[in-house]
Amino acid sequence: MKVLVCEVPGEFQYKELDQPLPQAGEALVRVSRVGVCGTDLHAFEGTQPYFSYPRVLGHELSGVVEAVGSGQGLNKGDRVCLIPYFHCGTCAACKKGLTNCCQSIRVFGVHIDGGMKPYISVPIENLLVEPDLSFEELALVEPLAIGAHAVRRSGLEPGEFALVIGAGPIGIGVMEFARRAGARVIAADVNEERLKYCRKEVGVEFTVNPFSQDMKQYLEEITESSMPDVIFDASGNRKAINGAFPFMGHGGRFVLVGLQKDEILFSHPEFHKREATLMSSRNATREDFESVLSFLKEKKFNVNSYITHRARFEEVGACFGDWLNPANGVIKAMIEM
After folding, report:
1. Backbone φ and ψ of 308, nearest 5°
2. Per-residue pLDDT for 70 more than 80?
């Protein structure tokens, strides 16, 4: 079978590999769709933490079960999506139910080869069956689950102000679930087209562009000087993260959803006097995936506007680099296998 391999940053090659055979507890899945996320794009440009090369990318997957090794719970022909976080089940985190941050976690397409290939063999326990959603909807479950997990972790309450920095696919998911939690959502981004999308498609109440507006003044005006109760960073931009600490209200929470390689710097006295909380939000749990499946079945999320670019598997090597260019207006790219 033909596999797309990122050999080194900026370089893809198609290679021929044998089709995998499902082992005990695994299922063979024929991949139908692969969503492209920031992790894939950053891996391609060489800026993704926890990464080594060569690597087969792809962890936002949907497909059809072709065969099942010894085990229960799946049948040939089942339409599935993948929980791409393979956990050990025995470490301290797993014993607490924190499988999303297992001490020995192996993320499909990050620590181990992923799904940019026609067939994958993966643990049965990491597959969720859902016959009532399209393959494209199923491939969106993972990125939306990251947003759902971040909002759940934040303890966001109805009526609170939630500032979401970064209106990419993960940030949009955070906004959607923050809005559903009853928060008053503020989207911040330097891309006006993405802010327009947030207003029109996600129903975000407030938007701000820090390049063209005084962000602190704007936040003070709409919150009547109390400032946001929760800040979510979905940009993974060090400057944006460090610069957002003064925007947090007293008793506020700052949730780091995006990831960058460097140190975070902030004023301890300013943070301390707010009795603020800083937390990270990593990946998602099965509970978050199941919540997103229920959400998508409501058919209130506009998949067609969220997916801005599509390509056949054979075309990906040639067009992947273009998806990095902000001028091309990519929110979510989707690969059809």
Report:
1. -95, -20
2. no
> Which tokens is 98 given?
């924190």
Show the CA angle centred on residue 18, arms to residues 16 and 20, nearest 5°: 135
Three-state DSSP class for residue 309: strand
Total residues found in the chain within this entry? 337
* pLDDT tens digits for range 125-138: 999 999 999 999 99
pLDDT of residue 49: 77
Integer Cα distance of 30 and 32 in angstroms: 6
pLDDT computed for residue 71 by the predictor:
67
Residue 44 has phi, psi (to 5 degrees) of -65, -35
- The SS3 call for residue 280 is strand
Give 36's strand partners: 333
> pLDDT at position 244, please?
97
266 in Cβ contact with 242 (< 8 Å): yes
Q: HSE (CB half, 13 Å, CA atoms) of 257?
A: 34
Q: Whose structure tokens read 């506007």? A: 305
Beta strand 277-280 with 253-256 is parallel
Mean pLDDT of 78-85: 97
Q: Please state, in angstroms and rounded to a whole number, the distance separating the CA atoms of residues 226 and 215.
A: 14
Q: What is the DSSP string of 227-261?
A: --SEEEE-S--HHHHHHHGGGPPTT-EEEE-S--S
CB atoms within 10 A of CB 317: 17
Q: With a cut of 90, say whether residue 72 has pLDDT above it.
A: no
pLDDT recorded at residue 113 = 94
Backbone angles phi and psi of 167, in degrees to 5: -105, 40
Report the 10 Å Cβ neighbour count for 184. 19
